[in-house]
Amino acid sequence: MAPSLRTLALLTRKELRDAWRNRWFLLYGTAFTVLALGLSWLGVTGVARTGFAGAGRTAGSLVNLVILVVPLMGITLGAQAIAADRERGSLLYLLAQPIDTLEVVLAKFLGLTAAVTAALLVGFGVTGMVMAGKGGFEQAAPFLGFLGFAVLLGAASVGLGLLISALSARASMAAGVALFVWLGLLLLGDLGLMGTALTMKLEIRHLLAAALVNPLQVFKLGALLVLRGGLEALGPAGLFAARTWGEQLVPLLASILAAWTLATVGGTAWVMQRKGGLE
Amino acid sequence: MIRALPLLALLLAAAPAAAREWVVSPDGPLRTPQEALARAADGDLVRVLAGTYAAPLAVTRSVTLQGEGWPVLDGGGRGTVVRIEAPGVTLRGFVVRGSGISLDEEHSGVSVEGPRAVIEGNRLQDVLFGVYLRHAAASVVRGNQIRGKTLALGRRGDAIRVWNSDGTTIAGNRVHGSRDVVLWYSKRLTVRDNHVEQGRYGLHFMYCDDATIQGNLLADNSVGAFLMYSRRLRLVGNTIAGNHGPSGYGVGLKDMDEPRVADNLFVGNRVAAFLDSTPREWHGSATLEGNLFAGNDIGIRLMPSVRRVDILGNSFVENHEQVELAGGGGDPGANLWRGNYWSDYAGYDADGDGLGDVPYRSQRLFESLLARRPELRLFAYSPAAQAVDFAAQAFPLVRPQPKLEDAAPRMRPHVPAGAPTLPPARGGAAPGLAAAAVLVTAALLALPAHRTRRRRQGSPACAPGHPPPELLRIRSLPRGSAMTEHPLIEVRSLSKSFGRRTALADVSFTVHRGQAVALWGANGAGKTTALRALLGVMPCDGEVAVGGFDVRRQGKQARRLLGFVPQEIAFPEMTAGEALELFARLHRAPLDRIAELVASLGLEGELEAAVHGLSGGRKQRLALAVALLADPPVLLLDEATANLDVAARRDFLELLLELKAAGKTIVFSSHRPEEVLALADRVVHLEGGRLQPERPPRELLADELQPDLAPPPGRTAAAARAAAPPTPLPAAPGGRLALHHLAKETRHGS
Lengths: 279, 750
Description:
The structure holds two protein chains of two kinds.
Chain A lengths: L4 H16 L2 H23 L9 H34 L1 H6 L5 H33 L6 H28 L3 H30 L3 H8 L3 H14 L6 H11 L3 H27 L4
Helix pairs in contact in A: 1-5, 2-3, 2-5, 3-5, 3-6, 3-7, 3-9, 5-6, 5-11, 6-7, 6-9, 6-11, 8-10, 9-11
Chain B lengths: L3 H11 L6 E4 L8 H7 L5 E5 L2 E3 L2 E3 L4 E5 L3 E3 L7 E3 L5 E3 L2 E3 L10 E5 L5 E3 L2 E5 L1 E6 L5 E3 L2 E4 L11 E4 L5 E3 L2 E3 L3 E5 L5 E3 L2 E3 L3 E6 L5 E3 L2 E3 L3 E6 L5 E3 L2 E3 L7 E6 L5 E3 L2 E3 L3 E6 L9 E4 L2 E3 L3 E5 L6 E4 L2 E3 L3 E5 L10 E3 L2 E2 L17 E3 L2 H8 L10 H12 L9 E3 L23 H17 L1 H10 L31 E10 L2 E11 L4 E5 L6 H9 L5 E6 L2 E2 L4 H5 L2 E4 L10 H11 L5 H9 L15 H13 L5 E5 L7 H16 L3 E5 L3 H7 L2 E6 L2 E2 L5 H5 L15 H7 L12 H12 L3
Parallel strand pairs in B: 1-2, 2-5, 3-6, 4-7, 5-8, 6-9, 7-10, 8-11, 9-12, 10-13, 11-14, 12-15, 13-16, 14-17, 15-18, 16-19, 17-20, 18-21, 19-22, 20-23, 21-24, 22-25, 23-26, 24-27, 25-28, 26-29, 27-30, 28-31, 29-32, 30-33, 31-34, 32-35, 33-36, 34-37, 35-38, 36-39, 44-49, 44-50, 47-48, 48-49
Antiparallel strand pairs in B: 40-41, 42-43, 42-45, 45-46, 50-51
Helix pairs in contact in B: 11-12, 12-16, 13-16
């Protein structure tokens, strides 16, 4: 049965409200805003008493910040969303109402993604105001494009967290797995790929394809591409990507993140339907 | 005196004629510059007043062409607009526009093929090549504004091209959106105070010895300045910023001898300085001194062939990679690094001489890996790269050889004076507006979190003093439902396993309208599983129908007929009022119903309280209120009194009795025999997931109410019960006596 939009809207609003009252979310959001503001301030005002700092450095710092914080925020919030509700009985209570499992999953995804998006918008909105005031960025489009990729990464992270949550028997297990997955995406996957590239002498296209499995790398490429107008900062692989896909690279990267989101949210719904959401 | 007159006449005849002045105006008498040039002689001044004049214009006399009021020379999109063939021509104050677009024929705004030309203060617009000097030694191109055609970069021409024109000066020009500024085969050039932006090569030098490049701003091009095959070239006091692209260099030095690159600002380039085969000759040298490299992807990239370069007193500030030795390895001592500032220097200056007391060594592991496998740069800007460097610091075993050593690093950066300042941001209000829009969107997203609560507080449905309504309404059956002809709940061959454990095995039972049915059994008997199966919230084998709706295929319709009360309601982030409003909306119940139920169930004053802060009894009343919001015909209760104290249990049970009396169908699980006896008409008895033969509640629970809970040693429980005097059971029907039993418990403080 198709989800009811009215039910979706009601549950999404509930999830959004719950997120805003979640102290972890508030902690993440505050930390993100403060760090983004600090990095941008350093970027536009210059460092080391020289008064100069390149836009690339600011962009690199913000990209790193998003890569660190947004997946952590999305995956851990998503991981708690189902497992914790299941553990304390509120998931059963919700499902005992005239609501479908799919509606619950979609609402949790939409609500949490909206919350993460709101945190990003606050962080980058404040940062953008400061940077605009200091002349730190000249055009709105790269800034908005970067924000768009950050939101897509947030959505994919929430989806991944929900899938972890649906598969986990307990909230504590979900939290542990979420942290491990975050660490894997952040470090272990890239380190493994670097080692493989060194030892196996991977061709550039294979290296790039393997890297693009990781949504964090996809975000990084997309963000650098829109912020800097090219991927030359990423060396031969970046140039290969830019020349191979040209103007299609931004839509391609955005589509990969969207596919991550669809796959994880779809997977969550499937697991919930299959397990009934209560096991 | 008279004898002197012939001599005077001879001198006058021999002297050149006095320079004449010609005025060109759309109103005549000379209407075109061409007409004036046809009459003019060498040395004449041709003043051209404001107006638009058709080109091409060929200048074959050594005249000065002076535009006044920005006259326009319009080529109409064909060929070269102004062609200067005579020596010593000055062209000043014109708008030159509309050249052709042939790269082969090199269509230009101004083409100069004579020496000592002065092209000054003109505006060149929509031209393929801007100013093209061929064999025009000692010419001056000064103070012009040049804007190329809006074409793809590869199809544009050069803003300024200097070819075989020694001693030429290019100064104070503003070039925007062209291809290159090219200077080839010309000695002793001076290039100063120009701004070249958004092109390909800001400056491109080949075979230009003894040139001076000073005070220029080269920004946002693919390459700031690429200097090749030249000797003794001085690049001093320039600002070179934001040059990006596949070969994005601030400055490139290739096969250069004795170049001096000093006091320049290199900011935000991909590679600030690139050196290849420099110096070219064995005994040659090269110097980079006093420059600032800040915020570039790479500060300096040195190809393996680069040796004997003195890199002195520069400041390397926050470049993503301060120095790259392309190709890896190399000899760290091939070049001299001394007195530079390094923003990643971790040493100290104990003697206060402004120089670090320990050498600066550049030996990041990730950079070392990049030198071996450049494609690993894909992982730049990611925490994995930083982790690699951290590992190298923690474990010296994997630390690479230093690629350079600066024995006396500066402790403070040095910012060269005199270089042009970076242009201010040109974004206008758009970035600020975009950021403001982002903040507004964030506020809109956050709004629902607060809107619900505000609206509920203002809702008349929740106003205190609302008349207590009738709590116990029986809803009419949904149309199409088979409720009246069939049992309200039908369970057939219900089975469920969790792994190897069987929770329910082939269980079948029915519940008719108005009945209260207890699910009875020990822990693990399958009561909760059966209730969840009735709710349709977990997959199981068999069939479950509520009001004729299959709970798995038509779960929503089935659950609209059910109100569920769990052991404990848990919504830690919500208040009681928010929970009631949310579920009322989910059930599409009128909001007035909230106030009715709040009054009936005595929840006034609790609406603002967090759900998790309510007492057990209040929580269960809230759960009952939620269950009754849509006035469903069936209530399912899963050990709803398990967490309540005796008084709360009694109150809750009284509520259930009222509901039963009002005709609600109730299915509940409980461990408490007195509740079952008080409420249940029938008992579904489960043992190990299997349905036991149905017996009347009083008969089934008789054993449970025997006072001797533990048999004496050597006697079985059954034998003990047989020996004990019979205990009167609470009276049935209606369970009122059972409630008295509970009330007595309360009074005795149990």
